[in-house]
What does this fold into?
Amino acid sequence: MQVVKTIPELRALRQKLSGTVGFVPTMGYLHEGHLALVKRARTENSAVIVSIYVNPAQFGAGEDFGAYPRDLNRDLELLEGEGVDVIFVPSDGEMYPPGFSSWVHVEKVTERLEGASRPGHFRGVATVVAKLFNMVAPAKAYFGQKDAQQVVVIKRMVADLNMGIEMVLVPTLRESDGLAIGSRNICLGPEERRAAAILFKALTLARRLGQEGEKDVDRIRRRMISLIEQEPLARIDYVSLADAETLAELDLIDRPALASLAVWIGKTRLIDNMPLE
Ligand code: AMP
It folds into this structure.
């Protein structure tokens, strides 16, 4: 396993790799969810490259860029155990040198949900992922269902810009109470951690109502909101029932849909989602 910090070093190592390269972009503070992506990449490729970079461009003013958890040594130990070939850990100066002024802006699917709550977020995500794709030149790239809108946005970018990279979507790994495993979970105090299970409960409620034949989105949303409101530590940012492809809000569940939500638990903003069959 080689750990490199600069783009020339990364390119030099990449050139030596033969066969298919699988790529897993991350912001570090790795957990079982990230490792599920790495394991999947390991089984499907001759070589695996992982990036660890907390991308300032995807955090808004007043968001938690400074407080985002980081522990590089632990991350490297975890990746060593997974048989990763190359780990790329760039600095901000390497990624955004003075004079940097080119951005990737994916329209429409970035305007809703996370894009509406976090203006500029997906411009930062699309730009950093495009840059990493150019550096790594993978055959396949691995992303988590946990960030469902991110997958829709990156798929759109890959198709529109003819990047020719296969996107592999990995299901969300969860704690035993259903909370999606996430780097920000560490920010929750014990009471908040207990309260955070409300996201999964609300999504499960949506799925159950859908399975029982409820098609009216207003009714499903109202039930989800009133369940979440029973949890005093939770504050809703959004609750969405959208077309799984376009992420446009639905009135009726008459096609593959995605229930998704963003909820503040204390000072920590958590997101989660569940496809509705
Ligand atoms: P992040 O470090 O939060 O940017 O996440 C890096 C990748 O890991 C993204 O594709 C995420 O969707 C994915 N990921 C994060 N948490 C989970 C999880 N609990 N299950 C599956 N994938 C995840």
Q: What stands out?
A: The pocket of adenosine monophosphate is lined by residues 26-27, 33-34, 36-37, 143-144, 146-147, 170, 172-173, 180-183 (CB under 6 Å).
